[in-house]
């Protein structure tokens, strides 16, 4: 079966790409490169979902994680003072603690996967139109329906949005545009392209 | 076989990008200079470092985008199942959107949507 062989090769290629990109996330010294590698790792994970016939999950993975979470991470990185970790040399104690924690997480997650029965996977083929099934289950209010979690999700999103606004804002006067109130370091150095063009070379380092 | 189309499309796309890069690497003359190493910004001369600290307002815009991004992800299966669910589904999704609109109104009232 040539199709099955292609499928196997494709799976191992995507899985290897995911692992390499995930290693790049934790090994690079530049935070923005880590964010881009994270974007790639999440995209290849979406590829794995698509290979499992979970097209809706793959679409949500790209829409929410690649398009949303990583963008938010990039904004968070750009809020920080410096994007490089060049000065950071972790001590042996920190390395040991990190190793213990990550090995513990690996053991517990592998144990959780190992202990799960995965009855659906062994029951046969996935439904042909999974978005339709998910939509019906999401809106159904009878037994087996998820309409209450569906509405609770909107409350959760509302709480996240209000919480983010309340934490980040500093009560500007009514009608004033939003700023952080100048409490962040470097807030006074906000980039003004026109005001800094003072010499002919445009201030570029020679 | 749908998968074969996808694979051949991916291979073709990767080949076009990679082929272009490899061909220009092989053929193009390599004469680097200080001007050529500056980032290209539509003909504008770059000033200072590329690493500037963003205003925190951008982060809030990103956060609100993420919230409505997740909302879109949940409304997609609703839109697919809309014909089967009918009026009840419309009311449920309307409630879902209404709750999130409260957050949007709050952000609007607090001036988060004002561009700095």
Write up what this structure looks like:
- The complex is a heterodimer of chains A (206) and B (116).
- With 206 residues, chain A is mainly α.
- Chain A has a domain at 1-87: Up-down Bundle (Four Helix Bundle (Hemerythrin (Met), subunit A)).
- Chain A contains seven helices and no strands.
- Chain A has helices at 2-27, 31-51, 55-79, 92-115, 119-122, 130-139, 147-168.
- In chain A, helix 2 (31-51) runs antiparallel to helix 3 (55-79).
- Chain A is globular.
- Chain B has helices spanning 2-27, 56-80, 82-109.
- Chain B is built from three helices and no strands.
- The relative contact order of chain B is 0.06.
- The mean pLDDT of chain B is 85.
- In chain B, 68% of the residues lie in helices and 0% in strands.
- Chain B has 116 residues and is mostly helical.
- Chain B has a single domain (2-110), classed as NADH:ubiquinone/plastoquinone oxidoreductase, chain 3 (Methane Monooxygenase Hydroxylase, Chain G, domain 1, Up-down Bundle), CATH 1.20.58.1610.
- Classes of the chains: A mainly alpha (206), B mainly alpha (116).
- At the A-B interface, helix 1, helix 3, helix 6 and helix 7 of A face helix 1, helix 2 and helix 3 of B.
Task: Give the CATH topology of the domain at 1-87 in chain A.
Answer: Four Helix Bundle (Hemerythrin (Met), subunit A)
Q: Superfamily at the CATH H level of chain B?
A: NADH:ubiquinone/plastoquinone oxidoreductase, chain 3
Low-confidence stretches of chain A: 180-206
Structural classification of chain B: mainly alpha
As a whole number of angstroms, the C-alpha radius of gyration of chain B is 24 Å
Q: How many beta strands in the DSSP annotation of chain A?
A: 0
**Could you tell me how far the N terminus lies from the C terminus of chain B, measured between alpha carbons in angstroms?**
52 Å
Query: Which class of chain B in CATH terms?
Result: Mainly Alpha
CATH class of the domain at 1-87 in chain A: Mainly Alpha
Describe the global form of chain B: flat
N→C terminal distance of chain A: 62 Å
* Count of discrete domains of chain B: 1
State mean pLDDT of chain A (0 to 100 scale). Answer: 77
The ordered H/E elements of chain B are: HHH
Helix and strand composition category of chain A: mainly alpha
Helix segment tally of chain A: 7
Number of helices of chain B: 3
- What CATH architecture of the domain at 1-87 in chain A would you give? Up-down Bundle
Topology order of chain A in helix (H) and strand (E) letters:
HHHHHHH
Helix content of chain A: 55-70%
């Amino acid at each position: 079966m040539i199709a099955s062989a292609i499928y196997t090769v494709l799976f191992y290629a995507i899985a290897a790409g995911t692992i390499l990109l995930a290693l790049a996330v934790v090994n690079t010294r530049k935070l923005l490169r880590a964010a881009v590698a994270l974007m790639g790792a999440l995209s290849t994970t979406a590829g794995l979902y698509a290979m499992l016939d979970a097209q809706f999950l793959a679409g949500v993975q790209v829409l929410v994680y690649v398009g949303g979470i990583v963008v938010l991470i990039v904004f968070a990185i750009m809020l920080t003072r410096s994007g490089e970790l060049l000065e950071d040399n972790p001590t042996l104690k920190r390395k040991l603690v990190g190793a213990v924690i990550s090995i513990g997480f690996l053991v517990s997650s592998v144990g959780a996967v190992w202990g799960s029965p995965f009855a659906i996977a062994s029951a046969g083929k996935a439904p042909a139109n999974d978005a339709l099934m998910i939509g019906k289950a999401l809106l159904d209010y009878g037994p087996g329906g998820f309409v209450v979690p569906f509405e609770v999700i909107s409350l959760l999103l509302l709480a996240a949005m209000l919480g983010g606004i309340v934490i980040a804002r500093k009560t500007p006067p009514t009608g004033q545009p939003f700023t952080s109130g100048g409490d962040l370091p470097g807030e006074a150095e906000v980039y003004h392209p026109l005001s800094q063009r003072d010499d002919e070379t445009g201030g570029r380092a020679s | 076989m749908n998968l074969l189309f996808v694979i051949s499309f991916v291979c073709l796309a990767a080949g076009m990008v990679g082929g272009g890069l490899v061909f220009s690497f092989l053929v193009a003359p390599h004469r680097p200079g200080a001007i050529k190493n500056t980032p290209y910004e539509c003909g504008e001369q770059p000033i200072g470092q590329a690493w500037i600290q963003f205003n925190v307002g951008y982060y809030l815009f990103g956060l609100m985008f993420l919230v409505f991004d997740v909302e879109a992800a949940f409304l997609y299966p609703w839109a697919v199942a809309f014909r089967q669910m009918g009026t009840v589904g419309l009311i449920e999704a309307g409630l879902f959107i209404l709750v999130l609109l409260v957050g949007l109104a709050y952000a609007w009232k607090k001036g988060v949507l004002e561009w700095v």
